[in-house]
Design a protein that fits this description.
single chain; alpha/beta; Rossmann fold; six-stranded mixed sheet; 11 helices; about 30% helix; about 30% strand
């Protein structure tokens, strides 16, 4: 059985600027696929081309077995989309908005069930302009789900939210996966991509440079673990460099960090040396490579650049 979402060699240009260049990916049933990249990488242009808000300049898109380019209206019965910002009339209530959007479809979800599912009960009859950022995002997700779609598209769904609102929204997205829905999510948050996505497609300058599970991407990275250390007495950096596995020492008096090619050997040698000098460890942290390390390795730039 074909995957619910198949994108092949997607291209989108804005004049002489190539925003999306031969992007291909597959999102499987019951999977959250993340498009991870900095602002301007082509994430939103990709998503908007797939859902029909923009006409791509080339490529093929199939949603639930339907050719999305030749049958865009038919595709809309099977998809839901939450864009970066949702604009509604100031005084419309969530209940009214859900009823209005549901009237556009043949088999809408009951309004009351959506209000309960997305924790909108307290604000169900309040005007839109009184909702907090988190409540607006939950309403946007409810509106995307109003036609009970098989494939969900979420564009930076937690951007600008506080940690608590982000956590609540994450749980709503995980619930979609548990129900067997396919989710394509764009984000520039490293932690969000790692915690939420089954697979991640790293996109940079309009091209997908790697696709895999977060853990597999990290395991394949060349980045080394980092040891961060604090001591109770000054230590010379030149005394740390010869220790087994130590590389790239960045040390000032009693604190610093260094990479290691062999965590076990470095820790043993480090403890032995510090004990011989009667130096105590105040704090020691081991930081494994992250998705951001993978991104920098593959693209040469930081997600924050």
């Amino acid at each position: 059985m074909a995957a619910p979402l198949i994108v092949e060699n997607l291209r989108k240009n804005y004049g002489e600027i190539c925003a999306v260049e031969n992007v291909s990916f597959i999102a499987n049933e019951g999977e959250i696929l993340g498009l991870l990249g900095p602002n301007g990488a082509g994430k939103t242009s990709t998503l908007e081309s797939v859902i029909g808000l923009r006409r791509p300049d080339g490529g093929a898109i199939r949603v639930c077995g339907i050719n999305a380019l030749s049958e865009p209206q038919k595709v809309k019965e099977h998809i839901g989309a939450q864009l970066q910002s949702t604009a509604l009339q100031d005084k419309i209530t969530p209940r009214e908005a859900l009823g209005l959007f549901g009237s556009f479809y043949r088999n809408p979800a009951p309004v009351d069930s959506l209000i309960e599912r997305f924790s909108l009960g307290e604000k169900a009859d309040a005007p839109f302009d009184s909702l907090s950022g988190g409540q607006r995002q939950r309403l946007a997700l409810a509106l995307a789900f109003v036609n009970q779609p098989q494939v969900m598209f979420l564009d930076e769904p937690t951007s600008g939210l506080d940690p608590q609102s982000r956590r609540v929204l994450h749980e709503s997205i995980r619930q979609l996966r548990r129900e067997g829905k396919t989710v394509l999510l764009t984000t520039h948050y490293i932690e969000e991509a790692h915690q939420l996505c089954d697979r991640v497609a790293i996109i940079d300058r309009g091209k997908i440079v790697a696709t895999d599970t977060p853990d597999h991407l990290i395991a394949a990275a060349k980045a080394l673990p980092v040891i961060e250390l604090k001591t109770n007495r000054p230590v010379e950096a030149n005394q740390l460099r010869p220790l087994a596995g130590v590389q790239d020492v960045n040390w000032q008096q009693t604190a610093g960090s260094f990479r290691t090619s062999s965590v076990g050997a470095t820790l043993v040698a480090l403890v032995q040396y510090l004990e011989s000098q009667n130096v105590q460890i105040v704090d020691l942290q081991l930081r494994q490579p992250t998705l951001e390390d993978v991104f920098i390795e593959l693209t040469g730039s930081s997600l924050r650049d």
